[in-house]
TrEMBL record:
Pfam family, one: STAS
GO molecular function: anti-sigma factor antagonist activity
Record-annotated STAS domain positions: 15-114
Classification via SUPFAM superfamilies: SpoIIaa-like
Protein's organism: Thermobifida fusca TM51
Stated name of the protein: Anti-sigma factor antagonist
Amino acid sequence: MSGHTQESFPCGEAVVFTVRGEIDIANATQLCAALLHATDRSECQCLIVDLSKVQFIDLSGVRALYECCRVLTWEGRHMVLAEPSAAAQRVLTALRMDRDFEIYPIVEAALVHTARQRYEEGPITGVCGCD
């Protein structure tokens, strides 16, 4: 796990949100909105963003992740990144995002600190969410 200096929140319920395809200027705003919408339930204390299916991410996508994290932290919630694809990992490493995010090598490792979880798949590429 990266981001060892991060503040931790106790997590009762986590949402695993799988992002697919490309995250760029064309859909970064949608991504942020979809991530925040996935945490609408008051029981959701942790958002785990599964990046395993990301084929490309630019700075707009990075900005969307930071904005979502800022909003959730302000609400007393927690956001972590998990299982970054090779493309996502290159960007995370280049920008040293492990200083700002907890980054787990696999989704299951991110789920260890939660009591319950549900899965969502990001609408960025038209994949439906499910509980």
